[in-house]
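WARN retry 2 of 3 for item q-0093 after timeout on previous attempt; input resubmitted unchanged.
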Amino acid sequence: MPETIKLTKTIVLKSRPLTKTKIKIIENIIEMYKDVLSIALNFGLKNKRKSHRKIREGIYEEIKNKYPKLPTHYIYTASQDASTRIKSFIAMRNGGKAYTSKPEVRNVSLWLDDVLFNYKDFKTNIERLFSINKEGKKTLHLRLSTPDGRIVIPLKPHKQFFKLLNEGWKIKAGFKLRLNKEDGTIAVLIPLENEITINDNFKEKQFDNSFAYQTQDGKIYIGGEKAYLYQTIAFQNEKILQPLLFFPTRYLQSFYSCLHSHK
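OK item q-0093 returned
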């Protein structure tokens, strides 16, 4: 039987310039989120908690008292963020690669779950989120929950975004938001996933499917100790993988660089 694997990638959509009022609201919620994240990190490290549920339970009452208007799900996502940072820090410390006594909160992306914005429309009915101006340019509207109510963020979808959707890539949960104060815009990181079918003919390779991702030029890498380079082809109304070559994973980065240096 053919085997189906899932590929994931993240695409970035920038917003159109926002009003000063919206920028101030977003700056305010990012500062709140950053504080919640710091509290979550300190609690997790002090109490030796790595689970986002344990962290959330430990800080929930404190955060609700401190920020009563903050939508509750920001506590959930900040706890998930903290859990990820703690696990990464512990792994680095155990490997002798940590140079601080605890994770430092510097650059912060606002983690969004499917309650904090109109995710269901993005997932199942994205066409209803578009508007078209007089020049025929489309705007994609994200509705973000804030302590001041929901605000609409106008995003600029680009050709690559539409191309990926047409190729069968699906929007999945896990959006992140970053503010660019210099030009008064935000960037939204949108995770996508796609399913590719591998024919039985390729099973004899016995590759370890521990990672899979697609590059900008459409090539797909899959592998564990060995990495396999594929290209996607159409076969009997299915997308399947045609093998091109394989090589040790440690050569993956240099090989990929070589591919693009000769374009």
